[in-house]
Amino acid sequence: MVRLGFDIGGTAIKAGVLDCSMNIVSKKMTAFTREAGFKSIIRKMYEIAMEMLSDNSLEKADVMSVGIAVAGGVDTEKGVSVKACNLGFVNVPLRAEMERYFPGVPVRVINDADAATLAELKKGALKGCKNAIMLTIGTGIGGGVVLDGKLFTGGLGHGTEPGHAALSLGGPLCSCGNQGCVETLCSATWLATEGKADAKDVIGRAKDGDPTSQRILTEYIENLSTALASLTAILDPEAIALGGGVSLAGDILFSPLREKVWQKSFFKHSYKIVPATLGNDAGIVGAALAE
After folding, report:
1. Which of 124, 151, 155, 193 could crosslink 278 through cysteines, CB 3.0-4.6 Å?
2. Are the C-beta atoms of 287 and 20 separated by less than 8 Å?
3. d(Cα 211, Cα 119) in Å, to the nearest integer?
C-alpha cells in the first residue's frame, strides 16, 4: 500500500508516492494554473497520480490515503482551503473534490508549513523531538510547532502563524494587513528588497566579502534572531529547524544566528538551530503523512 502527497504552490503542484517506509518512490510536477479553477486542478492532480501509480506497476486500489498541502488557512476537519490568497482559493472543498476520484480513500488537507513541519518531525531535522519549531523562509514565512511529539495545529484548530507575530511596532506593512510582522523583516523578500537582488545572490555576495551585502545580512540576522528568541521564551523548544532557500546559506547565517539567539534568550540556553533536511520534498512528505 502507498500514500499520495500533493503540495499546491503558487506556480507549481508537486506530487509524490510514498511507500510504507515513508520514502518517496515517484515524483512529478506540473504547473499551477490559477485561472483553471479548482475542479480542473484536482482533475490534473488525479491524472498525475495515476501516471505515477502506473509507472510503478501500482493501481488505484493500492492507495491507502491522499494528502494535500496548501498555503493559507485550512479547515482540516472539513478538508477546505479557507483562504489562500496566492492561489485564489476561498472556501475551496479540496477534500470533497478529490474524494470523487478516490472514493473510500481518506483524503486530508493540511497547511503547507504544517506539512513541512510534520515531514521534518517524521523523517528530517526534527526527528525524535518532543517539542520543536519549524520556520519556512521564502517569499513569506510559514511555520509549525511540535508539542509533546505531535504537530500542534492551534488551540482552536486555526493553526500557528509565527510569520505574523508582531516584531516591530509600526513596522513595514504586511500582506496580512498588519504592520511589522516577522514576515516583513525576516523573509527572503526582505533580503531581496534590501539587496536589490535575489536573496541567494545577496547571501553569495556577503560570502564573497561585499560590505553592503554583509551589512544587509547582519541586519537580517538581527531581525531573525529577535523573532526566534521570542519564540524560545514561549516554547523553550528542543530544536528549531529553518527551511526554504535562505536555510542553505550555511555558517554565514547559522553561526551568528545561534550566538544572537543565545544572547537574547531569556533562558540563556544554546538552542539547537539547524537547517531543515527535506528541501522541496517536505510538502509532499508531510501531506502524505497527515492524519
Report:
1. 124
2. no
3. 37
Note the pTM of the prediction, 2 decimals.
0.90
Q: Of 146, 176, 150, whose CA–CA distance to 163 is shortest? A: 176
Domains, the chain, ordered by start? 2-112+281-289 (3.30.420.40), 125-275 (3.30.420.40)
Around Cβ 61, how many Cβ atoms within 10 Å? Answer: 10
Burial class (CB in 10 A: 0-12, 13-18, 19+), 93: middle
Between CA 95 and CA 102 the distance in angstroms is 10
Tens digits of residue pLDDT in 121-134: 999 999 999 999 99
Axis-axis angle for helices 199-207, 251-264 (nearest 10): 90
Q: 179: helix, coil or strand?
A: strand
Element (H, E) at 216: helix 211-235
User: What is the C-alpha separation between 115 and 121, in angstroms, rounded?
Assistant: 10
Question: What is the sign, positive or negative, of the torsion defined by CA atoms of 203, 204, 206, 210?
Answer: negative
Q: How many CA atoms lie within 13 A of 162 on its CB side?
A: 31
Which distant-in-sequence residues (6+ apart) come within 8 Å of 262 by Cβ? Answer: 268, 269, 270, 271
pLDDT digits (tens, 9 = 90+) for 1-44: 999 999 998 788 999 999 999 899 999 999 988 888 899 999 99
Contact between 138 and 191 under an 8 Å Cβ cutoff? The reply is no
Helix (H) or strand (E) holding 133: strand 132-137
DSSP string computed for 75-87: ETTTTEEEEETTT
Full strand arrangement of the beta sheet holding 272-275? 150-152, 141-147, 132-137, 239-243, 272-275
